[in-house]
Structures
1.
Amino acid sequence: MKQSLQLKLGQQLTMTPQLQQAIRLLQLSTLDLKHEIHEFLESNPLLELDDDEQAYVDIPASIESKSAVESPADHSEEERVDSEWTESIPEELSIDSNWDDTYQSSATAGDTNNFDNQNFEGDSDFESRNAPAESIQDHLIWQLNLTHMSDRDIEIAYAIIECVQPDGYLSISPEDIWESLSSELDDLDIEEVTAVQHRLQRFDPVGVCSIDLRDCLLVQLEAFRDHPLYKSTHNIINHYLPLLGSRDFTQLSRKTRLKEEALKDIILLIQQLNPRPGSAIDAGDTDYVIPDVTVRKKQDVWQVELNNDALPPIKINETYSAMASTAATSEDATYIKTSLQEAKWFMKSLQSRNETLLKVASCIVSRQIDFFELGEEAMKPMVLHDVAEEVGMHESTISRVTTQKFMHTPKGIFELKYFFSSHVNTASGGECSSTAIRAMIKKLVAEEPAKKPLSDNKLAAVLADQGIQVARRTVAKYREAMNIPPSNERKRLI
């Protein structure tokens, strides 16, 4: 095959390293970004925490406020150092370059293990807050170690506890546990396993290690032996629990020969019992939400402010930056200059992130003023394209900004994506937000008659009377999304 040379012209989009960093920081949540800042502080000596607790970026604090003018004397030393080397360091890298192509790497990015070397002075509760959560098995074993039992019963108890599910119920029957222990314990009777199980059921939380709901509720009901309706309640749980679950109060009243008032008191008593005792021991990790922006009304004007307290304030280390021109060797000078440029690009990316976040949040608030004034029912339909067109950005950028970003409002904390919803046409030719429709359904369900709840067809008819044409299956979809049970399960006496 003959070799030859050919020239081709083409175009392609390539992002600069600065743009890649800015996009990556833009889509991070507040907690992830805080972790990213700590990693960068460990890897770059030219960046440090601002002890003066000033914000690391100077951007508008609200919609109507302006940035404060900085004094030239505050950065005179830094500007002097910058002027000496900025001519040799490009302001931006070319689009087809990497960090190491132009500069030597200043440091290796740290990993999560670097946090082990940090000084957590004053944080005496650090270990307890970062310890793994206690499971239901751990909680029961801790009580078992404090209980006086024979070695044989303790071995049976351990086998039972291993079969406890997170909701507190046993995954297998006592008979299956007895069969699995028969080969290990001589002359083991099923009565021994049952006796140990009954004893474990009185551990905290009461009702654990039960086989089914009836068994769990009966164990918890023992604490109300002195209640005047104890026998009637025990009878309903023991024999008529399916009728109670289906809310067939007419049939239940006829079979138990109880009047409506007595049945109401019994239902109130049963509602004090916990059908999922294991839920009292939460083994999951707690998720904390830190709002990125705050919305408040000042002098009849809704204002948006960034939550600058959510992230640690950072600044350039002036001592190290001044060494760029006084370094003993050229390698040291290059290292300092490289680190300084990376630190400035990082701070510029943070500033760009905050400016974009504030701009998008301000746009959302301006378009959803009725929500802040009147509530969810006044929510207007809005999609990503609406905000992107108003702020002059791409829809993908708006999607990154609104993902895992939260807004603190007088009505609570909401994710920015909460304010985006599709629309439904009204009879008058207008549009209604799906979020507003869900709020209307929730309000109608809250105000419905207790003995005769509204069906999905009835809810659709009520909305149609208000000019909102919604199909029954759409009402059912919205109702299920809000975890509202169907009408037959919402029937109640009280």
2.
Amino acid sequence: MARDIGIDLGTANVLINVKGKGIVLNEPSVVAVDTQSGKVVAVGTEAYKMVGRTPGNIRSIRPLKDGVIADFDITEAMLEYFINKLNVKGFMSKPSILICAPTNITSIEQKAIIEAAEKSGGGKVYLEFEPKVAAVGAGLDIFQPQGNMIIDIGGGTSDVAVLSMGEIVTSRSLRLAGDKMDAAIVSYVKNKHKLLIGEHTAEQLKINIGAVYEADEKQTMQVRGRDIATGLPREVEVTATELQEALSDVMASIIAAAKEVLEMTPPELSADIIDRGVMLTGGGALLNGISQLFASELHVPVLTAEDPLDAVALGTGVLLDNIQHHKQY
């Protein structure tokens, strides 16, 4: 028998939840390709190690951009590699797949995601919106007639949504998230310190000392890069306060989207959100001070999910069970 799987097809990482086993795969959404032969050289963690470090004939590609498929063939190859690695196919049957997408995705982009999952070895493919799945994975009971608000800050998109009765009532999806934060850090270090750093280094800065509210000036990290003037390698010290400054524009846009969603929310559901608070999920939820920043701007309690990085993948497992349950009746 094939085992049903839930896939969090993220811009930065792919997480796969196998029914009955939980999350069994968490690898970067990167594929290394030999440009001369067109062959896939490495997928996932191995390919991620090659980013910015490959010779001219090998290219590290991130096939998803801003939460949607930018390169269909490479996405299909990546999914096929991961699904085969897990050995979830049955002798005569294919696994059902539940896969997630941002809320502002077009019908053509939806079709591309479903098609990629089918071609990579899936049987029946279900598509669900990311904030709904993340809310379920974070432990919210979205199937009751009460308002639940979620802010999911991933790698390519930030999704803000209010849910009730198992459906999205109002939502906004921004193509502004972890990747744009990394780009903002690269730009800031270039302008402030006259140093060119790679996206890997920017990501490490964000993970280690990234802060968005009342940053601790004593928190610092040494980074190495190329001096703009001399072209030679150089090391500088970056502080958490500088990172707060670097990330301020991206955070302001996400806060503006959250305020928009709250303005469009029916009054009864708004009252529920004051009681229940807002749930933060995704990698962005791990930034220092992020819950305090949202709480001060939105004037409602803000909580961070227990496993913010795994919330979407955990939610796919719960929703897959629901789908299977409904099939039996």
